[in-house]
Design a protein that fits this description.
19% strand, six-stranded antiparallel beta sheet, alpha+beta
Length: 285
C-alpha cells in the first residue's frame, strides 16, 4: 500500500520545484515557496494549510467557481486552505509564501476545527506575518546552538498562534498602524471593487493616515507601481473583462471607466494589452 503524499509533496509537484527552505515543528511542516508568473491548479491537500504571503508582487488571485477573485493577496496577508479542497491560483509576477501544514490530529479544539473548515483568502494577520518573517531570517543565518533553540521557540509561538485562531472580529480587533499592510490591502481592494470611481490621491492618503507624498512612497514600495498606475491597471483589467463578456461599445466602456475619449482609452489599452480594444475583442470571440 503506497503512502499518502504529504502537503509539501503535492505542492512541490504542482509548482515543479522543492521549497526554498523548510523545517519541521513536530508533525507540522513550515516551508517557504518561491514561484513565478502562471496559473496553477493545486490538488486537494491532506491537511489544512495556513499560508503567509511574505513577499513578491502583490497580484496573487484565487479562482472562485468560474472566475478570479476580485480581492488579491499582498505581502502581509494570510490565507487558509482547508484539507480536501482543490484550489486554483493565478500569479502575476513573483510569489513568495510560507505554508504551515496543520496536522488534522492536532485540531482538538472546536475553534481550531472551525477556522480550518473553510477557505479564507487574503486576510490580515500581523502577528502571523511577523513571526514568519522572523523565522525566515533565522533560517537563512549561520546555524548555532542558540539560533536553533531560538527558531524552535519561534516555531512553537507560530504553532500556538495558528491553533489559537486567527478569525478577525472587525477592524478594531487588534491595534494596527494606519499605514500597515492591512490598511493598504483594504485600499487596494476598494480600488479593485470600484475601479470606475475617481480615487483621488488625497482621499486615498487620508484613508491610509499619511500625507499624499508619503502615501505614494509607501504604496509604490508595497506594489511596485504608483497609486495612479494601480487605478489605471484596475480599470483596464475590468475593461478587458467587459470587452469579452458584454456587447458594450468601446466608446461606452471608455466612458464608464473615466477615460477622456475613446482614443485615450485605446492608447492606454494598447500599452497595457499589446493590442487595441477592438483587436482584443476579436481574438477572444
Amino acid at each position: 500500500m503506497s503512502a499518502v503524499p504529504s502537503n509539501e509533496t503535492i505542492i512541490a509537484i504542482t509548482l515543479g520545484r522543492t521549497p526554498d527552505r523548510s523545517v519541521n515543528i513536530g508533525a507540522w511542516q513550515f516551508a517557504r515557496w518561491r514561484q513565478f508568473i502562471g496559473s496553477y491548479e493545486l490538488p486537494a491537500l491532506v491537511d489544512p494549510v495556513f499560508v503567509v504571503h511574505v513577499g513578491g508582487k502583490p497580484d496573487t488571485r484565487l479562482w472562485e467557481a468560474d472566475h478570479l477573485s476580485q480581492s488579491r493577496s499582498i505581502p502581509g496577508c494570510a490565507t487558509i486552505v482547508p484539507a480536501g479542497v482543490s484550489t486554483g491560483w493565478r500569479i502575476d509576477g513573483e510569489l513568495d509564501v510560507v505554508t504551515v501544514s496543520v496536522p488534522m490530529g492536532e485540531l482538538t479544539q472546536q475553534s481550531a476545527v472551525d477556522q480550518f473548515r473553510a477557505m479564507r483568502f487574503a486576510f490580515a494577520d500581523p502577528l502571523g506575518i511577523a513571526l514568519t518573517r522572523q523565522i525566515l531570517g533565522e533560517l537563512y543565518a549561520a546555524p548555532t546552538q542558540e539560533r536553533v533553540a531560538y527558531i524552535g521557540t519561534l516555531l512553537d509561538a507560530l504553532r500556538a498562534h495558528t491553533l489559537r485562531g486567527t478569525t478577525p472580529t472587525g477592524d478594531d480587533a487588534f491595534p494596527i498602524a494606519d499605514f500597515s499592510a492591512y490598511r493598504m490591502h483594504q485600499i487596494m481592494n476598494e480600488i479593485l471593487a470600484r475601479p470606475e470611481d475617481a480615487h483621488p490621491l488625497e482621499a486615498l492618503a487620508v484613508r491610509a493616515g499619511l500625507t499624499p507624498s508619503h502615501f505614494c512612497c509607501f504604496f509604490k514600495r508595497a506594489t511596485g507601481i504608483t497609486p495612479h498606475q494601480y487605478v489605471m491597471k484596475a480599470r483596464l483589467e475590468r475593461a478587458q473583462d467587459l470587452l469579452g463578456a458584454s456587447d458594450l461599445s468601446i466608446a461606452a466602456i471608455a466612458d464608464q471607466f473615466g477615460f477622456t475619449s475613446q482614443s485615450h482609452f485605446t492608447r492606454a489599452f494598447r500599452h497595457y494589452a499589446g493590442q487595441t480594444p477592438s483587436g482584443w475583442r476579436q481574438t477572444i470571440q
